[in-house]
């Protein structure tokens, strides 16, 4: 019985990688024939409200696909090849239109991930700094907050944001998306400051947010 529950959980978690793959390919398909010429001509593409160069589009897609491949490989080891043939449930929100605040001084770097959340029904607001994030939190309620770790205001800006949110009595979970070294080296400090989780994986981040799978 316990093994069955673990298998169901693993299959459900696979829905996020599948959703990401569908989004990446669906966004890339209309422009794949223009990519090479667009690079040389300086064309741009608008994704999640941000104007991206073709180089940025390629880099973000490559990063998401790389993460997707790694997570899928992990699931294959857990489930076995046969389990991969099972139907994957659709991704739906815990409640209609969850609201998420994404804090990053370079929001364009998260364009495809923000688009993924919006396609899943979330309303995503962005803030460029801790001060702007605190102002937004003071005016609206968020189901979750995402932050990078380092910003011009400090190398541990994500942790400082967690401390200030805790002092304000904000109960929304805060997740930090960072590089792998930071996610490991500063994990304990981040958790002690009130961060709900810290990861270097976009796929893991999406699975932590107030979006879930159901049949």
Q: Kindly give the count of domains.
A: 2
**Share in β-strands:** 15-25%
Tell me the CATH topology of the largest domain: Rossmann fold
How much helix, percentage-wise, in residues?
40-55%
| Rg calculated over all Cα atoms | 18 Å
Q: Distance between the terminal alpha carbons, to the nearest Å? A: 20 Å
Assign an overall shape.
Answer: globular
Strand order of the largest sheet: 5-4-6-7-8
| Uncertain residue segments | 81-93
Look at the structure and give the CATH class of the largest domain: Alpha Beta
Structural class: alpha/beta
SSE topology string: HHHEEHEEHEHEHEHHEHE
Which homologous superfamily in CATH is the superfamily of the largest domain? Response regulator
Count of distinct strands: 9
Mean pLDDT: 75
**Biggest sheet: strands, sense, closure?**
5 strands, parallel
Q: If classified by CATH, what would the architecture of the largest domain be?
A: 3-Layer(aba) Sandwich
- Helices, by number, come to 10
Ordered list of secondary-structure elements with their pairings:
Blueprint: H1 2-13, H2 15-28, H3 35-41, E1 44-47, E2 50-53, H4 54-79, E3 91-93, E4 99-103, H5 111-119, E5 123-127, H6 130-139, E6 144-147, H7 157-168, E7 174-177, H8 180-185, H9 187-193, E8 197-199, H10 202-208, E9 211-213
Helix pairs in contact: 2-4, 2-5
